[in-house]
Amino acid sequence: MGHEPLGYAAYVTADLVYVVAGASLLLAVVLPALLERWAVSAPMVLVGVGLLIGLTPLPDGMPLDPQENRAAIEHVTEVVVLVALMGVGLAIDRPLDPRRRRSWARWSTTWRLLGIAMPLSIAGIALLGWAAGLSAAAALLLGSVLAPTDPVLASDVQVAGPQTGDHEVDETDELRFTLTSEAGLNDGLAFPFVYAAILLATEGGIEHWIAEWLGFYLVGKVVIGVAAGVVVGRVLAYVAFRSRSRSLRVAERGESLMALAALVSAYGVGEVVGGYGFLSVFVCALTFRSAERAHDYHAAMHEVVERLERLLTLFVLLVLGIALSRGLLESLDWRGVLLGLALVFVVRPVAGLVALAPFAHHEHPRLDRGQRRAAAFFGVRGVGSIYYLAYAAGHADELGADWLWSTVAFTVVLSVLVHGVLASPVLRRVEPREAH
User: Fold this and answer.
1) How far apart are CA 426 and CA 436, in angstroms?
2) Which of 19, 151, 157, 370 could bridge 430 with an S-S bond, Cβ 3.0-4.6 Å?
């Protein structure tokens, strides 16, 4: 008899998970249509609903404490990011042919955001964090987890989806393409700096690990991850479109669950061979998309991934909102607030403007002044930041401090609010008329 109250509480907690999941599913269905005329995004509403739920007298015991549930948080956010990366890769129409210089040039805005804006953002936040009293490892980790544009919450400023049909497809909205392709690639490319923070916390001075980091974590794992994505994407594309066996040509039947098979396969292969699985998934999606580019099968696959991403994202945001009102921000202080504000309003916009500054009058494709400012500003932070923090916390206790969790959560919510409110009006103002 003495164990009945505990058992009852456990059952109530399990049932609450179903309630939260059901609420997020319902909102995922109805919110897009309800909010399309308002400068309010679905993530904003979900975080707000979660806050309200957290203020109700719900029983304690929900898995919200990041210290006690770090592994669960890591795996859930990992899945959300992976689904988003597959969706982003399938949505991009612009081809990337590594053998053609002109094709690389068409992605020039993406390379500049990755090669200039992201390192500058990491350095800026890391220096501010170090000046605020953080250890070198914690400051570097904070810069690394907050620098990447999130592929999950940036959907409001990304391309709508793959264009198919009997015509040549390519991106026509340069601003949305820039933000979409950046979000797809920078999640994987932020990992080397997360590893640098882990090595700094566990191995000590950089002289002990800098050679390994440069050769393996910065270059080797990137190359391996990209190669794994290309191989898996080509194999699956051959099976889906050109296999001799009709039963294997799933594109003819429109079997859109191939998207999930490709996601899991690419990530698994990328991680097993020692590369960055996030990069493998995005590159696999790009490679698969390059096969039979005008085929309607790509749109069907993207629709499945997009719906799954929406459900998972809103569930995570609902739980995040509950956690905010249940103690996640208890360790937040003026330093965390200033760092979050600095990132959203100063560091990322300045780094983006530096990266996208026009370097030639004949630059093509070209962003005009308003589009450059928008691309620099809309560095949305989200679920990916939470994943990186949870991953690093599993490797070094120093990197899982409550203050870091509070600061990252505050910055994510700030980004959800600021970018969610401004996305629609700003894009309407700077996008070409034909984009509407």
Assistant:
1) 13
2) 370
Structural domain tally of the chain?
A: 1
Cα dihedral sign, 64-65-66-69: negative
- pLDDT tens for 126-157 read 999 999 999 999 999 999 999 988 877 666 67
The rounded distance, in Å, linking the Cα atoms of 159 and 169 is 13
Produce one character per residue of 69-107: b if its CB has 16 or more CB atoms within 10 Å, e if not: ebeebbebbbbbbbbbbbbbbbbbbbbbeeeeeeeeebb
In angstroms, the CA 170 to CA 279 distance is: 22
- The answer to whether 302 touches 145, Cβ cutoff 8 Å, is no
Residue 188 has pLDDT above 80, yes or no: no
- Determine the structural domain holding residue 253 and report its residue range: 4-435
The yes-or-no verdict on residue 402 having pLDDT over 60 is: yes
Give the count of beta carbons closer than 10 Å to the beta carbon of residue 311: 18
User: Model confidence over 301-317: pLDDT tens digits?
Assistant: 988 898 888 888 888 88
Task: Tell whether the torsion through CA atoms of 56, 62, 66 and 71 is positive or negative.
Answer: negative
**DSSP letter (8 states) at residue 206:** G
Residue 358 CB partners (closer than 8 Å, separation 6+): 366, 372
Please name the residue ranges forming H helices in 291-382: 297-323, 334-342, 348-356, 369-377
- Strand ranges (E), 37-97: none
| Overall pTM > 0.70 | yes
